[in-house]
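call fold(seq) -> C-alpha cells
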Amino acid sequence: MTENPIEIVDLHKSFGAVKALDGLNLVVRTGEVAGFLGPNGAGKSTTIRVLLGLQRASSGTARLFGGDVWRDAVALHRRLSYVPGDVSLWPNLTGGEAIDYLTRLHRGSTDPAALKSRKAALLESFELDPTKKARTYSKGNRQKVALVAAFLVDPELYIFDEPTSGLDPLMEAVFTDHVRQVKAAGKAVLLSSHILSEVEKLCDTVTIIRSGRTVESGTIAELRHLTHTSVSALVAHDPSGLARRAGIHDFTSSRAGNMTQVGFSVDNTKMNDVMTALTGLGLHSLTATPPSVEELFMRHYGGTSNNISNGRRGAEVVGR
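ret:
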C-alpha cells in the first residue's frame, strides 16, 4: 500500500506549560494541494518544524511517506522541497550559487544539461538575476531564490510556509502556475498561506487549526456543504413566505419595478427545496454564491477579522 506523503495523528507538542499542538490531525495525499490555515500562534509553523525533524513531538505520530520524521529525517529530506516565509541566505554567495547549493541534495540522478535548462527557465519566469550577491537582495528576491531551488528539483512533496510573502502580484501568479504544474505531475503540496484567495485557487483540501487542534478538514466542496450559500433573486410574486422556510437566514426583500428583489442565505442541505419555491414565485433571475474560504475560516475565527486577508496584502491570518 502506498503511504501518504504526510500523515499526522493526535500530534502534541509542549514548550514547558504551553501546548503548541494539542491533538492535531492532518493528511496530505499524493497529487493533492492541501491548504493549512490558522491565525498567529495556532501551531502551523510548529507542525511544519516537527514534519521537517527540526523539533521533536511530545507525543502522537508524524510521518512522511510512512517514515518517522525524527529518525528518518535525512532520507526523507531527499524526497521533499521546503520554502519558509522568511528566507535567509549566505550573504557572500550569489543567488545562482545559493540555488546550486540548496539543490545539491537532490541531484543524484538529474541530467546536468536538463538541470541547467530548467534553472534558466525558472530564473526567467521568476525574473531573478542570479549574478547578484544575496546580501543585495530584497525580501521578495530572497523568496524567489528559495522558490527557484524548490521547483528546480523533482521531489515528491513540497512544503510551503507562506511562500509568497514579499512577492508582488505578478510573481504570485507565477508561483500559482508552478504549483499547478507540480500537482499535474502527481506531486503533493502542503500550502500554508495567509492569502485566502490563493488557497481557494490552488487547494483541493483545507485544514483549519485553532490552538493546536484541527477544527475543520476536508475538500473545499465538503466544507462548503456544511455552511450557507448566498442567494439573490428577482421574482414576480409575493416572496414573504420564503422568510418562514426552514434553512433560510437573513432574508431581505425590496421592490424593483413590478418585480421583487430578494436576498438571503440558505443551508446547502435545503437548496433544492428553496430553488423549487423560487421557481413557483415566477423566478426572473438568480445569483447563487457559494461560501468562500474566507467565510469557512471565519466560522471558527469570527472574532479575528482584523487578521484576515482575502486578497492582496491585508494583515496576516496565519503566521508563526
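DSSP finds ten helices and 14 strands in the chain.
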